[in-house]
Amino acid sequence: MTVCIVDDYIYWLWLSLTGGVANNNYAILLEHFKDAKEIYEAELDEYEKIDGLECKLAKKLCNKDVSEAEEIYDFCTAHNVRLLHCLEPDYPVKLKWIYAYPVLLYVYGELPNLNEVLTVGVVGTRDFTDYGRVAAYKIGGGLARAKSVVISGMAYGNDSIAQLAAIKNGGKTVAVMGTGIDRIYPPEHRELAKLIAKNGAIVTEFAPGTPPKGKNFPIRNRIISGLSDAVALIECRARSGALITTKFATEQSRGVYAVPGDITSPTSEGPISLIKDGAKPITTAEDIVEDFVCQYSYLNSVINNANFDVSIPRTVNTEAESLLISQKNKMKRKSLSSQSFLSSGFFSKGKAEPVKVKKTQSTDKKIMKDNNKAKPEKPKPDGLSEVESYVFEKVYDNKNINAEDLMCEKYTASQIMSALTKLEILELIRALPGDCYAPIE
Length: 441
Fold this sequence. Notes:
Layout: H1 9-19, H2 25-30, H3 36-41, H4 44-48, H5 55-60, H6 67-78, E1 82-85, H7 93-96, E2 104-109, E3 119-123, H8 130-145, E4 149-152, H9 158-168, E5 173-176, H10 190-198, E6 200-204, H11 216-226, E7 230-233, H12 241-251, E8 255-258, H13 269-276, E9 280-281, H14 286-289, H15 299-305, H16 316-323, H17 333-337, H18 364-371, H19 386-397, E10 401-402, H20 413-425, E11 429-432, E12 436-439
Parallel strand pairs: 3-4, 3-7, 4-5, 5-6, 7-8, 8-9
Antiparallel strand pairs: 1-2, 2-6, 10-12, 11-12
Helix pairs in contact: 1-6, 8-9, 11-12, 19-20
C-alpha cells in the first residue's frame, strides 16, 4: 500500500497511537530503525526479528491506516499545538533517559530549553493546609528567582500554587497533563492554564480528546519527574499520588527533597517518611539550588545575588481562589471535565473541532455499581509477563486496589504502571476514580 504523507509527524502520530502511552517498545524499535517513517514502512517479518518487541505490537504495526493520525495532525496545526518527537534536538534530554519515555509530546505554549537550566518538580496534596500553601508559594517563587523551571501537574493544591508562584516571580513553568491537550483537568484551572501557556508550556503524551482517567495520572507522573533534575514534595498523606512521583524520581536517579511539617498533621506523613528514607529536608528553594551549582554554572551567580525569601503577597489568597479550585467548586468538576477546552477560547486560532474519543461501554456509575458486586471468578490469561501476572493477581485478589498499594521492591513503579496499562488494554481490569483498579467480570 502506497500512502502519500507530506509531513513526517504523521508517522510519529501513527506510531504513538499504535503503541499507546508508557510503552518501552518504542526504545526497542528505535534501536533498529532510524525513525518513525522506517518503522511505518517495515513489514511483519522485520518486526518479528527484533528481540524484546511484543508480538501483539508487531501485529498492530502492520495496520498502516493513518487517518486518525491525519485528523489529529490537522487539529494540532489549526490550534498551534506543537508536536515534539523524541529524535528532535530540543526534545528534553533528561526525559529521553527514563524508562518508557514518551515517543511524542503535544506542546502548547513555548517549551523552555530544559536541557540548559535547573528543573524542579514540585508536587504535593490537593487537601493542602495554610502551611502547605505558604511553603508551596515560597518554594515555587524561590525557584523562579533562581532562574529555574518549575515542573508540575497543574493539580489542585500545592502543585498549582507552586506554578502560580513561579509565574508571579517572573519564572517559567511546565504543566504535564494526564489528559489530551484540549482537556484541561481540573477544568476549573482554565485561567491558570492560560497563564502557564504564556509563561512556559503545557505538555502531554495523551492524544487530543483523551478525558481524565484515574490510570493516566500515575503514568503522567513519570514525566514530571523525568523532566526534572529534582523533585520537591511539599505535603501529602502517607498514601498519595505525589509519592508515586517521588518514587519515579528515585528510580530515575533524581534528587528528592521534602518540606518538613507538623508531626501531628496527616499531610506531613509523606514528607516525614521521605526524610526518614534519606530525602533532603528543605525550607527554601536555595536548599535545592545549592546542590546543582556544579551541574549548572549559571547558578553560581544566582546563589550570590538571588533573594530566596519570597514573601506572600496579600492578594495571594484571592488569586489562588480565583485561579485554583475553591472547595465550593469541586461539585462542578463532572460537568466541566466533559467539555473541550477549545470551547472556552483556550486555543486562539483555527476552527477545527476537537478530536472525538470513543466512549467506553461502561459509565463511571456503572463501574462503581459493578465494583460492589461479588468478587468475580479469576480467569487465567496466557502470555502475561512476570510483572503483569503479579499485578493481575493483586487486582483480582482485591475488590478495589489503589495503584499505590501495588508498589513493591521487586518491580519499579514504571513497570507496575506499564503492566496496569497493558492489563486494561487486554480488558482484564478497569480503572476507577482515585487511581484505583478493579477486575472485569
